Amino acid sequence: MVQAMSAPFLLFEDMSIKKKEFNSIKKKFSASAKYKNQRFIDLGEVFLDAVGLPGPAIGHLNMFLGHSDTGKTTALVKSAVWAQQNDVLPVFIITEQKWSFEHAKLMGFECEEMVDQETGEIEWDGFFIFNNDFSYIEQITDYINELLDAQEKGDLPYDLLFLWDSVGSVPCKMTYDGKGGKQHNAAVLADKIGMGINQRISGSRKSTSKYENTLVIVNQPWVEIPDNPFGQPKIKAKGGESIWLNSSLVFLFGNQKNAGTTKISAVKNKRKVKFATRTKVSVLKNHINGLGYEDGKIIVTAHGFLSGKDSAEEKKSIEGYKTENSDYWKEIIGIEGDFNLVVSEEGKEVESESSQS
């Protein structure tokens, strides 16, 4: 009986010895960095309800991708508002030259208009850094690295939120000089962002890092034509695949083939002014937790986002928005009384309510 039990006992003992030997090897050669808990920029309950995520992931590269006028810049400004409210320094990198501080302030961004006493030029002051003096990509990446270097030295003692609008609107140095093309732009982005800045951004998530930095990029799209009659067009980010590959989260605004938006207009004497835009928003890529809705709908206004999953919710949202911001819209339209709402549906106009003009 004792002899029968000895073989398994020796086998177990042998395995235990080998495990101890491997553990010593593992301790010698393995290394595991500890990371901070994952957090998200909060773009509000409406955005969360539409896509299933609060917003961009902190400590990561994020992309807002979509055709023109689909809500990307609104999401960018909402990100900046969150940053100010949480003592994170917003750094605006503006290359598309469509930025408006007046619009940002309307959405809750804290900034004040100042007049330069010497030149008479209007400037904007507040808890943010703003730079739109760029001609090519390398200037932007050098600028980001300069700020990260200053942060490491203690000269910029804040978590940083870089907000770049937009990647597809600026070439690399070689293309700027007339010697390059799309492939050179893509190569520079792959080198400067993929192999450089993205590593510094994601590295700030380590528990040993004093600060935690985030990069949010608005990107212009192009549409890839299907290679067969049964295929579907696919949206692609300008600047090659590097930004896409290095983005932990990609939010798609609108459709892949086109913007896919419809307008909601305010009316006075049969004249219309754009009131809001109905658009789609979804999570196109998620390497954080894999979650995200693909069928989100949202309404974009001058003040931010409204919920609009269906017609009943949309009507309720618009009525509440109109009441809350009636003074603003009466001034814009130029009326003293109430105003109508007209929903544009592929050229058809349906008056949603009556009121005085």
As a percent range, the share of strand residues is 25-35%
Written as H for each helix and E for each strand, in order along the chain, the element string is HHEHEHEEEHEHHEEEHEEEEEHHEE
Mean pLDDT: 86
Q: What's the total helix number?
A: 10
- Distance between the first and last residues' Cα: 102 Å
CATH fold name? Rossmann fold
What's the topology here?
Elements (H helix, E strand, L loop, with lengths): L1 H28 L15 H7 L9 E6 L5 H14 L3 E6 L6 H6 L5 E4 L6 E4 L3 E3 L5 H17 L6 E6 L7 H4 L5 H22 L10 E6 L1 E4 L9 E4 L4 H5 L2 E5 L8 E7 L2 E16 L9 E6 L2 E4 L3 H14 L1 H8 L6 E6 L2 E4 L6
Parallel strand pairs: 1-7, 1-10, 2-5, 2-6, 6-7
Antiparallel strand pairs: 3-4, 8-9, 10-12, 11-12, 11-15, 12-13, 13-14, 15-16
Helix pairs in contact: 5-7
Characterise this structure.
This protein has a single domain (45-351), classed as P-loop containing nucleotide triphosphate hydrolases (Rossmann fold). By secondary structure, it is α/β, with parallel strands linked by helices. Helix 5 runs parallel beside helix 7. The termini are far apart. The strands form 3 sheets. Strands 1, 2, 5, 6, 7, 10, 11, 12, 13, 14, 15 and 16 form a 12-stranded mixed sheet that branches. A two-stranded antiparallel sheet has the order 3-4. The protein has a two-stranded antiparallel sheet with strand order 8-9. It contains 10 helices and 16 strands. Strand 11 and strand 12 form a beta hairpin.
